[in-house]
Amino acid sequence: MAEDRTDRRVSAEAPASADKFRLSVRLATEYFLRSMQLLVEFVGGDLVTALVFLAIVSANVSHLNADGPDGAPHADAGDVPPDEVRKPISVLALAGSLNLPYETTRRHVSKLLQTGQCVRVAGGLIVPARVLLSDRHTEVMGANLTNLRRLFRALNKAGVDLS
């Protein structure tokens, strides 16, 4: 009889767990879409250009992580790594990382170059610190932080354990 009660308890928990999972996916998707909308507006209205911009930023600082001997330099939002420590990425490597055709990636990079949101340096492309420190980018990051807090509040309210 004890096994019978345990089986019922487990089966009752399974739908609740599945519901939390589905809710978590929905909330995370909404967060992602709001974040991408902010980035699309920042780069001038094109989703692929926004992804290219984000991939350049990520590639530029991927070597600055917590696993290194110095911990995570420039981890604070206000401590943007200077251009000299950014690791440039080539258009070809960028295309490969995004699984996009080279020519498509090149066209989107050209848009970013024209607007000054990225620059060519020896070895490839970087998003310069001045772009990441701009008032507009700071505003976008603040809005994204608000979106992230909204996600965490909703998950917490739904009883999703974030630890």
Provide a descriptive summary of the structure in words:
- By secondary structure, the chain is mainly alpha-helical.
- It has a domain at 47-153: Orthogonal Bundle (Arc Repressor Mutant, subunit A).
- 65% of the residues lie in helices and 4% in strands.
- It is built from 6 helices and 2 strands; from the N terminus they run ααααββαα.
- It has helices spanning 2-43, 47-61, 91-98, 102-115, 129-132, 135-157, and strands at residues 119-121, 124-126.
- A two-stranded antiparallel sheet has the order 1-2.
- The longest helix is centred in the N-terminal third of the chain and has 42 residues, at 2-43.
- The protein is elongated and about 55 Å long.
- The two termini are 35 Å apart.
- The model is unreliable at 5-12 (pLDDT under 50).
